[in-house]
Amino acid sequence: MISALALVTLLGIQKEAPQTSLMKRVVDFLSSDEMAGRNTPSPELDQCADYIAKTFKEQNLKPGNGDSYFQITNWRTTETKVRNVIAILPGNDPVLKNEYVYLTAHYDHLGARKVEDGKDGIYNGANDNASGTAGVLGAAMTLAQEKPKRTIVFMTFYGEEKGLVGSQFYVKNPIFPLKQTSAVINIEQIGRTDDTEGPRVNAISMTGFELSDLGKVVNDAGAKSKVGTTGHPTNSFAYFGASDNFPFAVAGVPAHTVCTAYEFPDYHKVSDTPDKIDYKNMTSVVDVISRAVLSVANRKDRIQWNPDEKRAARFIEAAKKLQSQ
Ligand SMILES: [Zn+2]
User: Fold this and answer.
1) pTM: predicted TM-score of the whole model, two decimal places
2) Which of 69, 98, 323, 325 is most buried by a 10 A CB count?
3) E strands in 79-158
4) Closest by CA position to 38, among listed 136, 119, 103, 122
5) Which of 123, 136, 110, 103 is nearest to 26 (CA)?
6) DSSP character for 146?
């Protein structure tokens, strides 16, 4: 009998891309019942933070906070510690290496609720947002092979579901100057193509699409693989303040969230489980995001807020203030 490997070759079965395997592994770990829904704070969320840091290290990315992958603080007024997980790929241009582009996602979720024996009370949060965390790590694997001009910062936040707490903490206590940051691409919910408005395959949605020139950069990055990036008549702006990009935007840094579906059937339900993730689509989406990050890192100019868009006025004002500091 021939070996399994020989059989695979003989039948011409395509081997899974290493990014896909990595992302599956990450989603499975984070959204397993053992992680109990990754509530902030919880021992399980701590285990996830360690797991993310270990995975950054495996990709040979440098720790983002001195010799540590963690930015540690207390949870609200308690003694319990919570952690943002941060890694960097240093830039290679003598000048531009002091500028930054961020790729981020929140790794927490809703935890679990008390239920009768035998009933499922765990919010696995496979799409929200194990998928986005896996996307950051999958992109990290791809980008680690590159020599970008600007420094790329990879970051995963605690406490998003409790009101963007981890990202707000970071923006108040930035490790890399916000003033020298070109853009933030935050990833949410990239594992589900069953949008409540119909299937979203080979498509990226961006919040605040019209507010800066980042949308065009991400759309261009998908041209080769025919993955288009668009806004949405209502959701694009409505969701702009609903994730971890927002504290950066309020501080003046062009920052947007990319997702596949704004709304999907199992949103914030115990049925948001890993078996429903579409890894084929997720891999092409993360490919485009990686290319977009590299493009932002290497292009001549920084990303700018759109001066022709009225709704960008408050962010343009914030950007002016930031640059005058
Ligand atoms: Zn959520």
Assistant:
1) 0.95
2) 69
3) 81-89, 100-106, 151-157
4) 122
5) 136
6) S
pLDDT averaged over 10-residue windows placed end to end, the chain, 325 residues: 63 81 98 98 98 98 98 97 98 98 98 91 98 98 98 98 98 98 98 94 97 98 97 94 98 98 94 97 98 98 98 98 97
C-alpha 145 to ligand 1 mean position (Å): 31
The residue to which tokens 């609903």 are assigned: 242
Tell me which DSSP letter residue 275 carries.
G
Residues 125, 192: contact at Cβ < 8 Å?
no
Terminal-to-terminal C-alpha distance of the chain: 71
Task: Report how far ligand 1's centroid is from the alpha carbon of 256 (Å).
Answer: 16
Q: How far is the CA of 243 from the centre of ligand 1 (A)?
A: 9
What is the 123 CA–ligand 1 centroid distance (Å)?
A: 10
Q: Is residue 92 exposed (0-12), middle (13-18) or buried (19+ Cβ within 10 Å)?
A: middle
Cα(271) to centroid of ligand 1, in Å?
A: 13
